[in-house]
Design goal:
Layout (H helix, E strand, L loop, with lengths): L2 H28 L5 H9 L1 H18 L29 H18 L10 H24 L3 H5 L7 H19 L14 H20 L7 H29 L4 H15 L8 H26 L7 H19 L20 H29 L8 H6 L1 H4 L14
Length: 409
């Protein structure tokens, strides 16, 4: 066992875990005062649910077997898994499984922001269970577990397809199927911008473990992923601020934090494959494309994605996945067998990335639609108009957030 690599991945796992409560603060600061507790709960409760799901079936479906689409159930409850066995990076399988478990926590939490304030907690619980088993674990196997997209040559260093496109498309389909909010007033948010800043900070710190840790070793690729992640996030932040100055005449804290998030999303699939110049362009592109979608395209779609989950995670994730096919180079990572289109490698990798992106979008959209349709036959998905007006903190959880509670309730 490499103690250095093992300790590195353990610390990276802790940082990725930090992202989920960080996301709770980020989303909780953006929603209305009537739905803060519900938002906190909807994000944070996956830390329990997703851990149990991962141990029970997730690990087996993701990394057991050689299926083209999904693994098998031969290692239920991780039975038969040799946790002490060493990977190629000389870390125990048990540590690798914990690192991957943290990805299984944060991913379903991401799409919660699209539907906060209008769905029943019971529906959300059952949806996440079905979504994890039918969508997330198969995608992990497809891209990272030796499945079809892996064999095709798809490059996804830390989760562009598996995490962000997946969560973003899920958010878009859920928003469309559940319908818009009934109460959208100026008082509906943001509840506390200081929480937005705190959440963004925790996410950015955690993202360093998310991306650099995906090297699974203390090496030059981990260093490169750390650098590119930081550069892309900074470039996206400044780009969003300049966009706000151009369009509004001033910058905002929420906009600045949104820019950081878009840059982090965009660089995720490419961070271990691209140069710093490539990271700079990806970061700038993330804010430009996501900003354009949120301000110009989303209003025309008339889909109420409450916290712009698709606009940030989906759009920037799609851009980052395709941009990997533009800027990936073997000089950074020998795992790149076909350099990107703009790095002199021709259309091969660009075509692979585009195809993998399209497959992820279509497969996720179809499965989310099917899950919602089936669950709708067994339970009520949406809260009543009266419950939505009062807020889900009261109607679903019977507790308020202290001094931020609406005195009219």
């Amino acid at each position: 066992m490499s103690t250095a690599n093992t300790l590195f991945v353990m610390i990276a796992s802790i940082l990725v875990f930090l992202m989920t409560p960080g996301l709770a603060f980020f989303y909780g600061g953006l929603v209305s005062r009537r739905n803060i507790v519900n938002t906190f709960m909807s994000v944070f409760f996956v830390c329990g649910l997703s851990v149990l799901l991962w141990v029970a079936v997730g690990w087996s479906l993701s990394f057991s077997g050689n299926g083209a689409i999904v693994g098998n159930l031969h290692q239920l409850m991780m039975h038969g898994t040799n946790l002490k066995q060493l990977t190629t990076g000389k870390i125990p399988v048990g540590i690798f499984s914990i690192f991957e478990m943290m990805f299984a926590l944060i991913t379903p939490a991401l799409f919660v922001g699209a539907i906060v304030g209008r769905v029943r907690f019971k529906f959300l619980t059952f949806f996440i269970i079905c979504w994890s088993i039918l969508i997330y674990y198969p995608l992990v196997h497809l891209v990272w577990g030796g499945g079809l997209l892996s064999k095709l040559g798809t490059l996804d260093f830390a989760g562009g397809t598996v995490v962000h496109i997946n969560a973003g498309v899920t958010a878009l389909v859920l928003s469309a199927m559940i319908g818009p909010r009934l109460h959208t007033k100026e008082s509906d948010g943001p509840a506390d911008r200081s929480w937005v800043l705190l959440g963004t900070t925790l996410l950015w710190i955690g993202w360093d473990g998310f991306n650099a840790g995906s090297a699974l070793a203390v090496n030059s690729i981990a260093m490169q992923a750390f650098l590119t992640t930081t550069v892309a996030a900074a470039a996206a932040m400044v780009t969003w601020q300049l966009l706000e100055i151009y369009t509004e005449g001033h910058t905002t804290l929420v906009g600045t934090c949104t820019g950081v998030l878009c840059g982090l999303v965009g660089i995720t699939p490419a961070c271990g494959y691209v140069t710093l110049t490539g990271a700079l362009i990806i970061g700038i592109g993330s804010s430009l494309i996501s900003g354009w979608f949120i301000t110009k395209i989303k209003p025309r779609l008339k889909i109420d994605d409450t916290l712009d989950d698709f606009g940030c995670h989906g759009v920037s994730g799609i851009w980052g996945s395709i941009a990997t096919g533009l800027f990936a180079t073997h000089t950074i990572n020998p795992a790149v067998t076909h350099d990107g289109l703009l790095m002199g490698g021709g259309f091969t990798q660009f075509s692979i990335q585009t195809l993998a992106t399209l497959i992820t979008i279509v497969a996720t959209a179809v499965m989310v639609w099917a899950i919602v349709k089936v669950l709708g036959h067994f339970m009520t998905i949406r809260v009543s108009a009266r419950e939505e007006g009062r807020g889900l903190d009261i109607s679903e959880h019977h507790e308020l957030i202290g001094s931020l509670a609406n005195p009219q309730l």
